[in-house]
Design a protein that fits this description.
The chain is elongated. The chain is mainly α and 118 residues long. The protein has a single domain (7-117), classed as Four Helix Bundle (Hemerythrin (Met), subunit A) (Up-down Bundle), CATH 1.20.120. The model has no long low-confidence stretch (mean pLDDT 95). Helix 2 (18-45) packs antiparallel against helix 5. It contains 5 helices and no strands.
């Protein structure tokens, strides 16, 4: 049982095509750590324009997996960054980061389960 993602909703959104689901999760997997690294580096460097771009990219990558609690929080991070509230946006991001990593793990588990059922 997933804590955040809704497997049925993801399958439904992707027309029950498990190949599409797997490919989408693989694309997310290939970009996930790089996006987190960019966010971290932008905070370290105080580069708020890069922070805003990276958070926005992360929101886009995550959005294909439905509307769950973590997605709502990432939208909030993005909205705060867009409004120039970088300290607040950064704080919310680091609060949601552990949950974001759980979503990532749940997606990888979903892909493994699809592969095992094939």
């Amino acid at each position: 049982m997933s804590q955040f993602i809704d497997r049925k909703a993801i399958l439904n959104a992707m027309m029950d095509d498990t190949d599409i689901v797997q490919a989408t999760i693989e694309a997310f997997e290939n970009s996930f750590q790089g996006l987190l690294d960019k966010v971290d580096q932008s905070v370290t460097d105080g580069n708020w324009s890069e922070f805003k771009r990276s958070v926005h990219a992360l929101k886009g990558a995550l959005s294909v997996f439905g509307d769950h609690d973590v997605m709502v929080k990432i939208r909030w991070v993005d909205a705060e960054a867009t409004q120039g509230n970088f300290a607040k946006s950064r704080d919310i991001y680091y609060e949601v980061l552990p949950q974001l990593k759980i979503v990532y793990s749940e997606l990888l588990e979903f892909a493994r389960d699809i592969q095992a059922a094939a």
